[in-house]
Amino acid sequence: MNLKSLAAAALSLVSLAYWTVPAIAAPAMQSFNSAAGVMDVDYAHYLSKHDIVFNKPITNPLYGVTVGNGRLGAMVWNTDGLTMQVSGVDASEETAFSSGVIHLSAAPGMDAGAAKFQQRLSLYDGVLTTKYDADRTVTVMGAPNSEVMGVHVDDRRAGVSAVTLDLSLWDVDKLGGGDVPNMDTWRTVTTYADATGIGLSRGQADPNNFGYTLAASVEGAKFTAQTIGPNKVRLVITPSSHYTIWIACASRLNAPGHNSIPQAQRLLTGVKSKGYAATLSSYENWWHAFWAKSFVQYSNASGDADYLENMYYLYTYMIAAGGYANYPFHFINGAYSAVADQHSSKWSVAYWFWNQRDVYNSFLASNHVAVIDGFNNLYSRNFDALKSYTKTKYGIDGIWVPETMGWDGNARHTDDSDFTKNIYSTGTEAANNMYDRYRYTNDDSYLRTTAYPFMKEIAKFYTSKLTKNADTGKYEMLISNAHETYWRVKNAITDLAAVRSLFPVAISSSETLGVDADLRAQWRDVLANLAPYPVADDGLSYLPHDPPAIKMTNGENITSELLWPYSVTGIGSPDYAKALNNWNSRPNPYSNVWSPDAIQAARLGLGDAAYQGLKVMLEIYQTYPNGRTDNTNGEFEYMGVHLLAMNESLLQSYNDKIRVFPAAPSDTSFVGRFTLLAKGGFLVSSERDNAGVKYVGVKSLYGNPATLVNPWVGQAVIVRNASGGAVLKSSDPELQFTTTANTVYIVERASKPLSAYKRVTLTGKANGDAKFLTTTAMIGSSTLARPDTGKYEAEAAELTQCFASSDLAASNVREVTNMRLGSAVTFRNVRAGGKLSIQYCTFSDPGKLTLYVNGTRIQDVVFPATKSWTGTYAITTVAVPIPKGATVTLRYDDGDSGVNLDYLRIEGS
């Protein structure tokens, strides 16, 4: 087919009515809208398959569903009605304290006599809906990107005699923690209860202008207001078939005159005047517009990839629901809490950059620049404070960014810690984030006024801190930390990578802006003569710093930082082999909730490793059915890692070369589709199944030149304007072509152009139940029993005097360890069978435990030595009849010896 025919075929395809099909593998179909330059997605139905559904009431507050409007978040659970704990991101320094608890109850109770219950978080609408039978519905929503949320009640039962709404706080008399200058004001609570509604306030004398008022009023029903105690106020609502409770968490920071009480009342008056229906419509439209900016599909036949995709959308929602405030969504406090304030203060003294970067860095590719602005603004708004402090601390005219930085740019919790006080590379990461924001948006004004000035000061700091070796002529970093893991070392690889990452873009930016030619010359000299990365004696991998080796003080994988976040190596780089060796031999795989291993695997093009890494992180850290973790080192880092690792598996553009599906898993059932934003301002869309990549669609937003790595190596490729003819024919490894702003380009194989596929719109079917990834990882709740495969993970059993530990070689990446006299692992309600197979490892020669069934001792179980406590496993089998529903226990009795247990499987009949 000639080019004219190709173009005509594509144009006719746009004008045809198109099919709507579920998002499944369809080798003969494609879903690119060449007129719009994005994937054709019925977002409402597609995202409905990712709804989070609880079919049983949530009675554990830690399992509460998360809902938010951009600035406020709430966790919602079902104890004697409906309970919400609300948090406002700007309410306190580093979101140290959540705002209060809302409890809605009725007489008779909302659940009284209800045969059916379902709580559904619709990600597409941003709405949480709780239904009791067909006559009671409670809807939690909000005014978009505001400090107001709403609870709408539709209760058509006859005989409802009372409705109450309580606002309360836990006992704050002994409250501690948080980087606040006046703790007394956070222990002081004032209340009001009048004809306008109810409210409670604290932090009203905070000298930093934080503090808030949590207030409530009602639309659609009469009410009276009462003060119940020093920390509790109540609305007594006249029962009505439908009414809306409006809740404001007015921060002093955002209130006129920093007066949160009248601000809360103004917010409530305004939203009541607009009304529930109009506010709900605005709120849903806000979320609809949010989702329309990008699209990701990541699925396979087993459903594991679909679970990963579900979490991608949930985690995007959870972070964005608090991501539009003036201050960042804190990595552990975020916009949600259901645990009073007893855990938030652990990390509430600062923003740890290492942790915060995980939360935020996916949002450029997913085309949500306003979200990452909240993070970048933390550093740019503190420009003067950082520059002044750098002069005081180092005597250097430049900027040093503390790794743990307070809201106002302070370094109080960096300077007093050996872990952080000698980290210099944080500033480069902050500067690179600003530069990337410019590269994705083409915002020249942002480059000139914000990004470049910050980059310049970081480069000046490094230029001053480096020392030129008189013998070698090389610039060296004589003493610094290789982040938190290696202290006071020479030529920390993080510093060398930071310079190689930042200086080239600082140079090019100064050229673009026509400024600082003298500094540019200095930076070029440093780059040309910078000390090489430390290399191992065998020459096959990098070292984290110059010899001698020192002990590790944290569980980071320092050499893999070159892959991400510094982006100085990766697929196609001359030192790829070294980077690969470093990743394969990294000392601390998946060691913490912030571990970026899967991101770095994607940067190496390791599709299977990235896919497994996404699973491993969820298997280890997603412990609650709302998607959250019980890990006290952070709440949201692993969520952000998940988002970025999936984006990087589908699309990379960090080095200004667009790569589609650079790290797709090898699973032949894998189906991937996406519309994501690439550097240079290109909306890139593509689809892949077991036959490979079908096409690449590129919408040029600003008319920059594009470079695309050819996804069909050696094949003839045509790049054409969607409304015209070819702009390039090539089989080169890289396809370079000029673009025009707001124009769509289609990259296709000459042998199978886009017109060879039938166009379809992607859709989906609403989810109705819980979903499962492994024995432990699940989302939502079900009234149905989980399918019993006969395999029972030891770490999911009842553990007595032993505990679960991580091991990547173990099933579900965990094993049960530390078994000693009196320890036991108990599996309850197992299936029937005639044989037990037990996977284990042990250095004991042999190991031995005692088997009990339904409390009766059956026999000793011998475990031949594997010469390992991790990594190498074996299976021992025991022929024993197991009745259905039995309790099986492996116990360490007198005369037994140590074993680590991985899982038990019941087989036979």
Characterize the structure shown:
The chain contains 18 helices and 51 strands. With 909 residues, it is an alpha+beta fold. Among the domains are: 134 residues, Immunoglobulin-like; 211 residues, putative glycoside hydrolase family protein from bacillus halodurans (Beta-galactosidase, Chain A, domain 5, Distorted Sandwich); 120 residues, Galactose-binding domain-like (Jelly Rolls). The relative contact order is 0.10.
**Overall outline:** globular
The level-1 CATH class of the domain at 64-274: Mainly Beta
Largest sheet composition: 9 strands, antiparallel
Strand content range:
25-35%
CATH superfamily of the domain at 64-274: putative glycoside hydrolase family protein from bacillus halodurans
Summarize the structure.
This protein is of the alpha+beta class and 909 residues long. It is built from 18 helices and 51 strands.
Question: Which terms would index this structure?
Answer:
51 strands; alpha+beta; Beta-galactosidase, Chain A, domain 5; 909 residues; disordered N terminus; 29% strand; 9-stranded antiparallel beta sheet; globular
Question: What is the topology?
Answer:
Elements: H1 3-15, E1 19-22, E2 29-30, E3 32-33, E4 38-39, H2 43-48, E5 52-54, E6 65-68, E7 72-77, E8 82-88, E9 100-107, E10 117-122, E11 127-132, E12 136-142, E13 148-155, E14 162-168, H3 183-187, E15 190-194, E16 197-202, E17 212-219, E18 223-229, E19 232-237, E20 242-251, H4 260-274, H5 276-291, E21 295-299, H6 304-320, E22 351-352, H7 353-360, H8 369-380, H9 383-394, E23 404-405, H10 412-415, H11 426-441, H12 444-465, E24 467-468, E25 475-476, E26 480-482, E27 486-489, H13 493-513, H14 517-528, H15 576-584, H16 597-603, H17 607-621, H18 637-650, E28 651-652, E29 659-660, E30 671-678, E31 682-689, E32 692-700, E33 706-709, E34 717-721, E35 726-730, E36 734-737, E37 743-749, E38 758-763, E39 771-772, E40 778-779, E41 791-793, E42 798-800, E43 803-806, E44 814-817, E45 824-827, E46 833-841, E47 847-853, E48 856-863, E49 874-882, E50 888-891, E51 900-907
Parallel strand pairs: 1-38, 2-38
Antiparallel strand pairs: 3-4, 5-10, 6-7, 7-8, 8-9, 9-14, 10-11, 11-12, 12-13, 13-20, 14-19, 15-16, 16-17, 17-20, 18-19, 21-30, 22-23, 24-25, 26-27, 28-29, 30-31, 31-32, 32-37, 33-36, 34-35, 34-37, 39-40, 41-51, 42-45, 43-44, 45-50, 46-49, 46-51, 47-48, 47-50
Helix pairs in contact: 6-18, 7-18, 8-11, 11-12, 11-13, 12-13, 13-14, 16-17, 16-18, 17-18
